[in-house]
């Protein structure tokens, strides 16, 4: 990081030179070569500037109609679609993710779909849960919380991007400006998206500081940024260690921070299911673990099964398929290092390495890896054996009976997802009932008979869960309108004159379609 940066940051609607003279480069993981651009590691002067601009933008946005914010989100989605070829090319160079179908056919449409869903939510305003008590003359709803800083992850350059992804869409739809902190694995992709976002800001007349972008900050400046009084909330997706550093800083000043941190996504294989359709489950599991080289936060990193001939056949078949498939390219050398370190932690603790486990020389890859441990060892060291091996690796836990399977599940930390495969014949129903209650308490999304990889952009989706999956079990990062609530502040108006009330709380329904609770009844009618 000794080179002087030559790429500008976006502050208050202007692309300008960073105040920092420290730079970094992204790397193409497929080739190992550095990308030519040098991006700034912003100092506090940059942070101070974006915070001041965001505070001004927040004040202006509170006076702007929701329809105008929705228009921005729609215009931005169109901008992204018009620049699809360029975006896909840049993201492919920075992440090695396939142009098709992954980037161009799956992730980019998902991103624009999220933006449009957020626009619809902003338009109606029902997400804000307006409540009116006519007798007491008290009214309440969620209002914008203030500037939101979004930290994007490395594994979704579009759909979770700090200036285009789900957190961004939710924060903007709720009426807040966003300070994007790019992931350093794909700064060029983020820069291009910010350019498109700024074009949409100008097109729709939103405040200049509605969308701002920094590429990187030091750990100390990051902690100072998330605890600043001008910031309303933080959305973070990334490593557990870095996330907890930010959480500690935000918690000290009572700043809400919504984190997605770590998840091994347990999959329980009941014996009847394996006996009934073992080959199908093998195929589904191998596909899920190796898809995207396992670099999904919902990757099935933990299998729980009973000791049996069917389980042994499952394990051996998976080993064979793992050995047959060449390992994919990981997102960065950092991911490679973290994955091999996690595998080492598991084997040192007593897990048996069934296949893989080693880094591939000369490539940003690690061999497809399967490990095994008995339930007694897992129960004795549950924290260690839940070390997240982010990538193309999974751990099989072998239990002696259903009660021990339940005990394994009872030792689990919070996870994003948890799945149970059971027999269609009903032979596993008792075992399911024994295990499901424990599992449900420890995950944000319960699945039956399907692997967890992939998160549908559905209004009913919960992409959250108990700690350490996220920082709070009551919120989701995917699923509009629920995801908007993270970036709202519940505000009550007691005996406030009608013309001074927010648009959602006035007597006349502002859209004719907004659902409001009026005297304990949900309705779209006027008061």
Keywords:
single chain, 527 residues, alpha/beta, Aldehyde Dehydrogenase, Chain A, domain 1, Aldehyde Dehydrogenase, Chain A, domain 2, 2 domains, 7-stranded mixed beta sheet, 5-stranded mixed beta sheet, 15 helices, globular
Explain what this protein looks like in three dimensions.
This protein is an alpha/beta fold and 527 residues long. The protein folds into 2 domains: 35-128 and 143-261 and 476-483, 3-Layer(aba) Sandwich (Aldehyde Dehydrogenase, Chain A, domain 1); 266-448, Aldehyde Dehydrogenase, Chain A, domain 2 (3-Layer(aba) Sandwich), CATH 3.40.309.10. It is built from 15 helices and 21 strands. Strands 14-15-16-13-12-17-18 form a 7-stranded mixed sheet, with helices on both faces. Strands 19-6-5-20-21 form a 5-stranded mixed sheet, with no helix packed on it. The chain has a 5-stranded parallel sheet with strand order 9-8-7-10-11, with helices on both faces. α2 (66-82) crosses α6.
Helix and strand topology:
Layout: E1 9-11, E2 14-16, E3 23-24, E4 39-40, H1 44-61, H2 66-82, H3 84-95, H4 99-124, E5 131-133, E6 138-144, E7 148-151, H5 166-173, E8 178-181, H6 187-204, E9 211-214, H7 219-226, E10 233-237, H8 240-252, E11 257-260, E12 266-269, H9 271-290, E13 302-306, H10 309-324, H11 333-349, E14 352-355, E15 369-374, H12 375-380, H13 382-385, E16 393-399, H14 402-410, E17 415-421, H15 429-440, E18 443-448, E19 488-494, E20 516-518, E21 521-523
Parallel strand pairs: 5-20, 7-8, 7-10, 8-9, 10-11, 12-13, 12-17, 13-16, 15-16, 17-18
Antiparallel strand pairs: 1-2, 3-4, 5-6, 6-19, 14-15, 20-21
